Amino acid sequence: MVKDAGLACRFVISKRPEGAPVTERAVPLAIFQAEPSVKRHFLRRWLKSPGLQDLDIRSILDWDYYIERLSSAVQKIITIPAALQHVANPVPRVPHPDWLRKKLLEKTDVFKQRRISDMFSKASAKPRLTPDVVDVEDAAGPTGSRKRVRINSTNEQDDAGDSVLMEDRDGEDAEAAEAGSQDAIGATNKPPVVNALSRTPGPAASSAVTDLDKPWFEALGEPPRLRRDSSKGFADWLRFHKRKWRHQRAQQRACNAGGGASKRARTAGDSADSTAGESLSTTNILAPLPLQSVGIGASSGVGGMSAFIRRNQRALLDRPWEIVQLAGETGEPGLFRMWIVVDQELRCVKVQVPRIFYVNHLTAKTDCPADAEHQYRRVSRTLPRNRVAHHLYEYRMPESVYRKNQDSIRAQLMTNDVLGVFELSTSLWFRAVLRLGCLCVVDRDWARRLVASGRDTDTFPLDSLWLRSASQSPYLASSRGLKLSHFYHHTSGRLQIWAIFTPGNQPRCHVFIMAQSGGRLASDWPGLATGYAAEWRRREAAMREALGDQLIDGFMPPETFSFDVKSEQNIDGIVKAIDKCLSSNKTERRTPTIMTVDSSTPLSELTRRFHSLQDYPLVPVPPLHQLLFNSGHQPDSAEETYGLGLDWQRLGAARMIGHYLDSCVAYAKQLSVARYHQVPIGNLPINANESAILGIDVFLGRTLLKQNHLLWCSDSESPDLGGFESDDLRLDLDLTCEIEPFETVRPGFYPAYCAHIDVSSLAVCALLQCARIHEMEGGAQTYEILPVQGVEEMMSEAAGSSLSQYDETAACSTAFRTIRSLALAWIRDVTQHSHRCADNLLVHLQRWFRSPQSRFHDPALLRTLQRLMRKLQIHLLAELRTLGGGQVIRADFYNILLATGKQNPDDCLAYARHVCRTLCSKDAFQALDLQVSGVYSALLFLDAANFCGIRYEVTPEDEEDLEDEAEEAEDRRDRSASEIRPSQHPSLRHRRMECQWNLGEFLPISLQPAFDTVLTGLLLATETLLYEEGKTAGKGLEEALLTLLKGSLSHDLMAQVDAFRRRFKSAGGAASKLIAVPNPPGRRADADCANGGLEFAKSVCRVLSLADCLAEEADRVKAALLRLAGVGEFSSRGDWTNPCASLTLAEVACHRCDFVRNLDLCRDPLRRGRGAQGSWLCPRCDSPYERSMLELRLLNVAKLLAMNSSLQDLTCSKCNSVMDRSLAKLCPCAGKFRCTVNGPDMLVQLRTLLSVAEHFDLALLRTTANLLLSTL
């Protein structure tokens, strides 16, 4: 209401316009009494709602505003005074404000460190006797003469235990003395004044304690009631509480000594004390004494506080540290924050990591460093690539000193005496992880020196900490004393959602939403609490099973949550709101909390944006489906891309709640990975593949350090070889590792049944059987060679030094043996303990060899492994041929297509499985995993991208049927093939036709269906002849197919070519949709694209000629088609060449299911789309490969092509010897020199790269390819 001279106006607050200040939403009350037209006009104008129809005041009022005003009044009058008087909230619908809740938590929190000023008051300089203070014992007795009494805790007969001077009163009766004593002691409500610090219990006091393991109410019984009308009742009450206080002191002393009462007993006694002592609080007698229940009171003084600090320092030095997270550097270089758990307490300490590097000097150093910070010492280590260590010195200095003098240090290391500088690229974080692991202890000698110095510290040098194995001490095995909060962030389209889940006594979730378009979303989000409860009940069993008994108490999500939803318009508002929420949670929640993070944003970016996150140890947890090793599970796409659609609230809530409930399970799985890898759980990558690569790096790094081997780890793609990374580029010019993988192909027509065998773990098998592979070749194990030297070193030495020593296999022999020993250990863990993490490391081992993300990535190791894989594959195919009856159609590192010659699929399946079992039983192939994945019949095979056949899928049900019907299969073999129908075979239940013809993509659109129809018709005709007419794969089948080709099939081909020729002439040569030739990636520049009919004729005849029985007739049909197309039979235009070039990347791994295969970017049948939306799909899980990863590998191919062209040798055209004399025109044999690299082949490869870049819109690759083509 507003009043002024001649003015009295009453207002109401409306809820519109939304988001406007209260003053702008004030509406005069008189408008509701006006005429309807006037009321409608002004209300629409004031409320800024032109379409307003409901003019009822109840629908216009801002009820939330009035409820808030009423709640404020209730708080001021009722709830706040009640809370200050320790009364429960009498109006539960009106919650306490945040400041009051914080204050109440501070008062009732037993874990809070209290200030000393809250327990004591400052004593006067000259303490003197106070005549108004009486003895507590005398206050209960009769009146007597005034006397002075000193209550001393050291006296055996004293029961009060306080060193406070008191004196009684005389001249009063008993009742007056009792009342006066109570007023004198309690009415002032002031803390006691401490004049003595001694608190040594006497023998009587020690003997009076009954049982320290029990709380006082169990050891002493129920306390007597305090009766004001009787002095005897007060004396009994006081005598009981003296015994109780003595019992609590003894418990505290025993706890300080390390062998006393348990914390549970003291806590139970404290809670009972607060309950049973209500009468004590009402009269305010000896008010400071309850502080003794937490071990800090008037009696403990400085000694108690110092003992508490000494206990914490002693636990920090004696107990093992369970490292939760090794966070980033602080403001000081080399100083890392580390969150640890010691005795179930979460702490934050700092670790100083020095800069360590090694210098290989040609001559020994004789001078001694004057500065202690630049100390060095001579060491004996094995250098990377087995280089010779002449005089190796280890330099150690603080990181701040190194960064300050970095330029001068590098200048000193560039002298002629320095042969190499090693481990300069090793990051400090990785060195700390290798040193500490997930469990560490403080060095005893360093701890003794620290205790002797009498100083406290929270900064520890890295050398003072030692790794402890997880088998010696459990790592985060219990959740006692810890809580698990969750930070959630997700972006979907224009919508961003943040959520902070805080469990506890009052579980609460703060949700923040923001639309990137700038509009404000409604803050109401109905159904969150009920949806959460329903989802929790559905997942309860799975969560309990994943957490186990030890983690379920602290980390199990609560059954109910209260949700607080807020909407912001910009990111600044979100940041302020989240920082405020995190700060308040840390202030109110005294329990140590670990924050799990579910966000695609890196932790470094999150902590930079939200500063309050630095107050928590952060554990990134990925979505649960990413932790399911080797699974192709994918989340629902609707949940990932709900955006701002009409159903965004339901989908967003389902994803948010589901991810939070999955976070505890993901935490448990990450904890098992951290224990096996011995890496802090907060430092594990969110991606399971990256986590496995980090685990292999950590295992290899620690093993190399134990073997006194220097590390070559680096954050870049090149290994740290002491400065010799680019001295010998020959090792990096092998294109077989990238685009020329091993493959054996035998084109042809196979009417009998063929088996498709999947090969797994070939890399692990080659790594383990490297010695046996060399034995099978008849040679020695070549990588057991002495340390080798560089080219310049060997050339500068005297005669007798052989250049044959320079072998990259021998160069990495030590590292290769170390990796082999690790693989053997992981296999032992898998076979003996069924450890899933070890199996995951073996699965990712081949990816680790190739991945540039690996810190120990070395191209020499990769090439050594691939050579062993090639040799092992060749031996595998040789063993396969020795088994008899089989013919290898196609083979690479991951697939084998075997022609068995069997006449029914059951016999083919049984034979293929027998072959797999026989091969795996041999010693050289025991680590291989061979599985039959399919059976083909009537297979017409040109290459991996061009074939067709009838495929029978092999499923687990088929395997069981085959085992159960073994006897029936024997009976079927005795019958003739004509009696067997396809429907009688169990394996034919999963039968389909599979046709993949990359050739058809380069034909005109109008001829592509005809191409598929001709080949499909030939396939179906073959199947009909085999099964319905009883033909066998022999002369009868060949004659039938030859008759088919001479008859209807040749006439159809003639008709198709003639129709296309007439259509092309009628169009006048102009391109149209029907006769236009598409331009897929990889089209060769020499392909004849103008005459589509000619390409159709050549392609069809080339496929028909795959069958030996049809080759001669196919040539006759081809001659007729060429004449019809206007091309001579012997013209060069009639020769068939594959119109599509091949660009195969070796060993491409899927980031979801870890399936590895060779990917042909131009011919792959799972190629989808074009432009920025184009992708290649994984055949196992249908997930698209990462375009950025493929583009980086293609850029590496372009770099290798350029380096091959620049660094190629000149060879003689006659004797093929390499030119060894500069500027020589002719070879000594009079032959001319020629380039090693074939120019036309390199031009084809660069044009293929450019074609792929343009088709899939790879901008960086397109720029690089154009630049290289311009230089040719």
From TrEMBL:
Species of origin: Macrostomum lignano
Subcellular location: Nucleus
Its job: DNA polymerase II participates in chromosomal DNA replication.
Comp. bias (Acidic residues): 958-969
Domain DNA polymerase epsilon catalytic subunit A C-terminal: 542-950
A UniProt-annotated Pfam family: zf_DPOE_2
Molecular functions per Gene Ontology: 4 iron, 4 sulfur cluster binding; DNA binding; DNA-directed DNA polymerase activity; single-stranded DNA 3'-5' DNA exonuclease activity; zinc ion binding
Keyword Nucleus: yes
Descriptive protein name: DNA polymerase epsilon catalytic subunit
Reactions it catalyzes: DNA(n) + a 2'-deoxyribonucleoside 5'-triphosphate = DNA(n+1) + diphosphate
